[in-house]
Amino acid sequence: MHTPSQPPSEQHAYPAHWEADVVLRDGGTARIRPITIEDADRLVSFYEQVSDESKYYRFFAPYPRLSAKDVHRFTHHDYVDRVGLAATVGGEFIATVRYDRINAHGMPASAPADEAEVAFLVQDAHQGRGVASALLEHIGAVARERGIRRFAAEVLPANTKMIKVFTDAGYTQQRSFEDGVVRLEFDLEPTDRSLAVQRAREQRAEARSVQRLLRPGSVAVIGAGRAPGGVGRSVLNNLLDAGFTGRLYAVNKAFPQEQTELDGVPAHRSVRDIAEPVDLAVVAVPAAHVPDAVAECGEHGVQGLVVVSAGYAESGAEGRERQRELVRQARSYGMRLIGPNAFGVINTAPDTLLNASLAPEVPRRGRIGLFTQSGAIGIALLSRLHRRGGGVTGVTGASTFVSAGNRSDVSGNDMLQYWYDDPDTDVVLMYLESIGNPRKFTRLARRTAAAKPLVVVQGARHSGVAPLGHAVQGTRLPHATVSALLRQAGVIRVDTITELVDAGLLLAGQPLPTGPRVAILGNSESLGLLTYDACLSEGLRPLRPRDLTTAATAEDFRGALGAALADDHCDAVVVTAIPALGEDGEDDVALAGALREAVAAGPAKPVLVVHVELGGLAAALSAARSTKPGRYDGSGTAVVGGAHPFRPAERLPTTGAAETPPTTVPPAELPRIPAYPAAERAVRALAEAVKYGQWRREAAEPGKVHEYEDIDESGVAEMIDGLLARGDGDPRGMSLTAEEAQELLGRYGIHVRVALPAPGPDEAVQAAGRLGYPVALKTTAPHLRHRPDLGGVRLDLADEEQLRRAYAELTEALGKPEELRPVVQAMAPRGVDTVVRAVIDPAAGAVLSFGLAGAASELLGDTAHRLIPVTDRDAQSVVRSIRTAPVLFGWRGAAPVDTAALEELLQRVSRLVDDHPEVAAVSLEPVVVATHGLSVLGASVRLAPPPARSDLGPRTLPAY
Fold first, then answer.
1. CA dist., res. 399 & res. 363, Å (int)
2. CA-CA distance, 359 to 308, in Å (whole number)?
3. Residue 107 burial by CB count (10 A; 0-12/13-18/19+): exposed, middle or buried?
4. What pLDDT score was predicted for residue 391?
């Protein structure tokens, strides 16, 4: 953190929260921070490196150097009316932006003036990297924080680059031309277009930063030992064995001066000694020596780091601080970082063939992207994909693999940005032990899932504690809630690594099912029945199994599968197969060929095979066929001459150029079919595909967030400001009284039935007289609230006599009135008791929850959740997604309740919390939903200062 001193005349506190790391258009990083009086020399040095043309565009006249007065003006700010920000790399300025508050006449002013002039200057060497666009986002956020709502900028017509920065930002703007100058004025209030522009730039920049790590033209392994073995030497050998197509360098300060190569790779004592550019450095030295290695890389212009060294946050407080400093150091040089404590990265693309990891072999080339936060899980994933030879190119193979270790910088969010439009990846599989920015992850997951399947396993989901190496904000939400929110975003949530691979096999090579109807056919009646039962257990709709008997031939299977695929009442097919006694491999090949030919000839529907000890059937289902001789290696590629496609027989030449790849035969055009060793596993994967297909269809037609004319948004904002101003400043917030909660909710069309206090029987009678009979008498003591089973509620009291009798019984059975806090409330129409809640979680954001009141939600956890804001479709689905939903729709002959009124209530609560982030929690209990309308009988509201919304602010990397 930059911590400058300030002279007496500049008493405004240094705004450290404006400091941020950003990813630029080319994938590099820069630091944005306020300019201080200590930056005078940096400013002068920066200005000297700016071309005369850029200076002319900035000052509208030749301006070769800054005067002392200029330097003072541009480095002395009050951080309110005059603000300057700088983008830095390596501690030096590469760009600046400043604003000066002005009045209606364009003269310097203070608040309440809400307009400011803004001006940029970007060093020529860094123009075109998106620096000005990033600075505009940040200076705009600063201005809004200081009460400025509008920017004005004067630009020369020839300065087309800067005009484009303003016009492309997406803000509402006006343009005029006078005295040879273009004047641009634009509101700083974010618009849908400005937010879309910001997020599109974020995606391109972060994807590019990952691409620089996964597609390097040159790699240096720092810490490659002279003796065989060791982490660095292993990584170097793995790069060689994979056939990396770029330049390789071995770096170790212990190399003798005369040593020039290691395993045929150029050897150097320092990265500084390498004459050519280095794109990626793999750091495998003890943690104490990593800072020196990072400094050398930064000074040499290395673009990215993979740090496999351990001894960081996973080792305790000292290691955690070491990890923070590592991230700061890497970012200061504009580098992204994978790790520390990383297992490494793999890219199987033929033009890269990168294995910068500890995996001795790369996976078969395919179309699955893999991300893990654990090296051990990474090994398990790669091993399972390797063993599952029943896949195809793009089914069992991987496009890219990243095991991020402590994921101090590059995270799962960055990988989603990369894989979203990566043409080599069709399916994404992720093992996550923590989610650093759940709001952003959910947003990115929803966008990714709309284009390609995203399957996630969450580790440490029941402990509630992130691994020591992961510096993340905790969540108060239970795992079931987090899981439901991920599913809402289109994430396919599974529980084990086996299920992760099973789902990936299906989704990578088969079309999505259009419904839950499943045809089952095979040569075993028992296996067919097991599959049928498994389908029912997973919520699918299986058709009656078709038994082909054990005498079935390959042609019988072909005909049966073709008929099933042609059936309009079938959405997917599960084929079960057991071997006949004495069967040999040729029969396996014949059966596989028959199934694949039937799939190729039929409509596009997913087909899965459940095989029992069938030897070569799994491989045959995916085998490539060719007219050329060659052996099948299980990857969908026939290889001539016996060489492994990712392990060349000879090492690369010392120049780093790749040797000629082995001759290959194009894979067969016939589709390949995923095979599973158990019916339950196949059906579970199919069930996930069915749910995902349904989500994709619904996501194609998103719902709407309704606007209600009777909502008093400004009135509630004013009321909240007043209530918080009266509070004691507790960051945890304040709970509203019943009267305050009723007023606030009422302004959003949420009407709570009045409950009058009844400290004695006479007061109860007076309250009933005001409300009108029949009434309800109930206790509000915390230990009795919402517990009618304990006898604290008396309903349908028709007159004074019944009310007094109920009051006496209540106090005699449960305690004194001052302990019970009884209230009287008018009776509501009979219906189903439900609960509606909304809460702002520090990690996940605003969440809406719904369930039936009582044991269903409290004891059995039958509660549905949705992220706020909730659309009309979200409201419909949340009502119908609880297990006890049939109670609302006429269960066992009861009249259906007014679910339309319930859905409207859910949307109004969502609007309240979304419009006013100070509303930290809302609880409506019970909400009695009748056949016509509903009644909110109890409500509580808690206010708190609004939390930081990093997902809505300017682009920034997580702070360290």
1. 9
2. 12
3. exposed
4. 38
